[in-house]
Amino acid sequence: MNGIQDGVAVVTGAGSGIGRQTAIRFAEEGASVVVADVDEEGGDETVGTIRDEGGEATFVRTDVTDGDDVDAMVQTALDEYGGLDFAHNNAGIADEGTRLAEYDESEWDRMIDINLKGVWRCLKAEIPEMIEQGGGAIVNTSSVAGVSANGSAHYAASKHGVIGLTRRATVDYADDGIRFNAVCPGVIDTPMVQQASEDNTEEMEQITASIPAGRLGTPEDIASTVVWLCSDDSSYVMGQPIVIDGGLLAQ
Ligand SMILES: NC(=O)c1ccc[n+]([C@@H]2O[C@H](COP(=O)([O-])OP(=O)(O)OC[C@H]3O[C@@H](n4cnc5c(N)ncnc54)[C@H](O)[C@@H]3O)[C@@H](O)[C@H]2O)c1
């Protein structure tokens, strides 16, 4: 993809699933990658995979609920690779599928702190560096739950919020040459979903059968879109929630 080669990317939640595949894809396209996650083992594994294939990556333990960690993540990109061109703000947690009145305030706070405020913390750290160097491209991970009532209320609220942040950032920073978009994955075959399917195989079979594509999405289905959204090939795509769901919401 045009414009990725020799760039510098940070990816949060890169120790597993969608984030790991995005980090690998950035490296395959010739970018240097800062792999950020709370999970050190997962992060190290991602870096190992990238390096085994001749790519360039560094792990930095990052909890997106901690502003100092997030600042250190961006600083790692500057120190190790001399800049910051692309970011995939992707770290997130799912929910147990409970209804609004059935979870308590601490569960609400945790969901919003990681899935929504975590993205805001990343943007706050990334944007000034991109302004400094004259531009960049950022992709935030929302969900089909960011544009519909899929997922429980606190998850859906967090993912709707990510789209609001993405749109507002687009308007605020277009003049600075920074593009922002969001990806809205459907049901993607990652540890997040594998956990749910172990808990309820029958429900997962029903969900898979309800997807027009006839299969779950793969992390690569999302990663290829994220890297495209950071590339020059998508230079006029700005402020968009891009749904990647095998036709789930088309019904
Ligand atoms: N898998 C799906 O079907 C699906 C669908 C829609 C949206 N999403 C979103 O995609 C993103 C990635 O999900 P995934 O399916 O790859 O899940 P995953 O569980 O495989 O990976 C998530 C990663 O985020 C990390 N993480 C969690 N909390 C963190 C924190 N506070 N700071 C830093 N890292 C943290 C985890 O350690 C893990 O490595 C999430 O935002 C999720 O909500 C996933």
From TrEMBL:
Q: Name one GO molecular function term.
A: glucose 1-dehydrogenase [NAD(P)+] activity
Q: What keywords would UniProt list here? A: Oxidoreductase
Keyword Cell membrane recorded: no
For this protein, the Enzyme Commission number is 1.1.1.47
Domain of life of the organism encoding this protein? Archaea
Bilayer-crossing regions: none
Family indicated by similarity:
Belongs to the short-chain dehydrogenases/reductases (SDR) family.
Name used for this protein in its record: Glucose 1-dehydrogenase
Species per Swiss-Prot/TrEMBL record: Halomarina rubra
Q: What is the lineage of its organism?
A: Archaea, Methanobacteriati, Methanobacteriota, Stenosarchaea group, Halobacteria
